[in-house]
Design goal:
The protein is mostly helical. It contains 11 helices and 6 strands. The chain is elongated, with a radius of gyration of 43 Å. The protein starts with 13 loop residues before the first helix and ends in a 10-residue tail after the last helix.
Amino acid sequence: MPTKGKHRRPGSSPLARRLVAAGTGSAALALPLIAATTAEAAPQARQVSAHPVTAVTAAAAKETALREAPATHLVVRGDSLSKIAEAHALSGGWKKLYQDNRRAVGGNPSLIHPGLTLVLGEKAAPRTAAPRTAAPSAAGQKAAPAATESGPTADGGAVVQAAEKTYSDDLDGWIRESLDIMAAHGIPGSYDGIHRNIMRESSGNPSAINNWDSNAAAGTPSKGLLQVIDPTFQAYHVPGTSMDSYDPVANITAACNYAAARYGSIDNVNGPY
């Protein structure tokens, strides 16, 4: 007796029957089915352009480079290391500025040429010294005031008022006040020349006095920032300054007046005078 189901045709799945049915037609009918299956199985990857990222990175790098670049100053006619250091409030003053730019400036810090580019260092902390009012000129008037703008007028313009020039009550301020008085009286001299001689003569102490040299033995000791004896101070005293030889501005101005008469300028003095 034949075994039941031995020669039975195996059944086909619905998917196989559809494929066969499609195959009985033309080959073109099978292509959409294959394409659709492929699209579902492996979707095409999206492509993102890298150009925007590169542009942003380059811009950020440029901004960082500009931010980290050292500050500079282009020297113009009339500039000096002391003026530049003061204008930019540099820590260490003109000496540090010269030290940082010695190779570019050369051996003479008093001589800088227009067109020279100087690298600027760190800014100094704000000064807290009390301001010193400008000394009167020979005619008894205050030094030339600076103009300031106070507000609009009725017609839209600006009211300009005179602001009195002030100086810090320290060595820097004394030298600068003296220089303004000297300029008004035609007395030559530079900040560097005055500062150099002060540091040699008194180390910046306006109360310094020499009680041991020949002048002291003669009863006329050298006094003040630039170590001037009383007869010299009185002979070369500049009108408008104090008659006290210990007064720093009066002492500097009288000494520079004397140096101009004897040596041409305080800048030419490089030793005791």
